[in-house]
Specification:
- It contains eleven helices and four strands, in the order βαβαββααααααααα.
- The protein is α+β, with helices and mostly antiparallel strands and about 290 residues long.
- The chain has a four-stranded mixed β-sheet with strand order 2-1-3-4, covered by helices on one side.
- α1 links the parallel β1 and β2.
- The chain starts with about 40 loop residues before the first strand and ends with a helix.
């Protein structure tokens, strides 16, 4: 590594390299005009099956599993590597140009909801599920939800970027963020040693938010061989919790929605009806 002295004023004069370099920029707003599609259901989701996107599709599938017909939704694929999130229609729904973004068209005036944690709270309050109404369970659930929102950037943009995506391996950066991620896993493990789920005895939006990130890490699904690197098998209580959530049918369906990578049988690029899981996955479309 060459020594770097920051200039007095930073300027954007070269690509930053590594994965996602083509879509990183220091300004907001749309780069091109593109309207978003609108389907038949009141709830319109624009997303990709990253950990943040999966939170919301799990929530919607769990609501449907409980019989909430109003939770039927159209899920449209946003390919972030292609810059779909910078289209004018998407920016109108989420000025931050990040997935997921939700439009609720079920009332007199459409309601936009962005940021995954906000979407989970919105849906929980709309349908009266997965967010306790009584204290202290409500406070505990919201605390763990916001713990995830504050902690996951160290896992994704910190550890994940420098371990798996950066154009060069930087020991200092990897060590710094690996230490923090292991501390976070220990926080979760200690909580789950005393409680079945993060909010208490019940499965809530806190689990739906944390599981795609830290459950995925625990099960070796993220950042190449990072599970071995971080010795995730040591966190026995996280492993127990991750396995329990893995086994939920709604979670299995939620992982498939807007998925554009991995095994074709696990990819449901768009979801407009429950039957799509049986007829519209990529392996079945390829066989037509």
């Amino acid at each position: 590594m060459t020594e770097y002295t920051p200039p007095k004023v930073w300027t954007w004069n070269k690509p930053n390299g590594g994965a996602f370099a083509s879509i990183n920029r220091p300004i907001s707003g749309p780069t091109h005009d593109k309207e978003l599609p609108v389907g038949k259901h009141p709830l319109q989701l624009y997303s990709l099956a990253t950990p943040n996107g999966v939170k919301v599709t799990i929530m919607l599938e769990e609501l449907l599993a409980l019989g909430h017909g109003g939770a039927e939704y159209d899920a449209w694929l946003i390919r972030i590597n292609d810059g779909d999130q910078f289209g004018s229609g998407f920016v109108e729904v989420n000025p931050n140009s990040k997935i997921p973004a939700l439009m609720d068209r079920g009332g007199k005036k459409p309601i936009r909801v962005f940021e995954s944690g906000s979407i989970l709270v919105y849906l929980a309050e709309k349908f009266g599920e997965f967010l306790p109404t009584e204290q202290p369970a409500r406070a505990e659930t919201l605390s763990w939800l916001f713990w995830q929102m504050g902690s996951a950037p160290y896992l994704g943009g910190g550890f994940g970027h420098f371990y798996a995506y950066a154009p060069e391996k930087i020991e200092y950066a990897i060590d710094r963020f690996a230490m923090e991620v292991k501390r976070q896993m220990d926080v979760l493990d200690r909580r789950l040693a005393e409680s079945e789920y993060l909010g208490g005895t019940d499965y809530t939006i806190a689990d739906m938010a944390v599981w795609p990130w830290y459950g995925g890490l625990a099960k070796g699904r993220m950042y190449n061989d990072s599970g071995e690197f971080l010795s995730v098998q040591e966190y026995k209580h996280v492993q127990r919790w991750a396995d329990a959530i893995d086994a939920r049918p709604a979670v299995q369906r939620g992982r498939m929605v807007n998925r554009a990578f991995g095994e074709p049988a696990m990819q449901l690029h768009e979801r407009h009806d429950a039957s799509d899981f049986d007829t519209r996955t990529q392996d079945k479309l390829a066989a037509e």
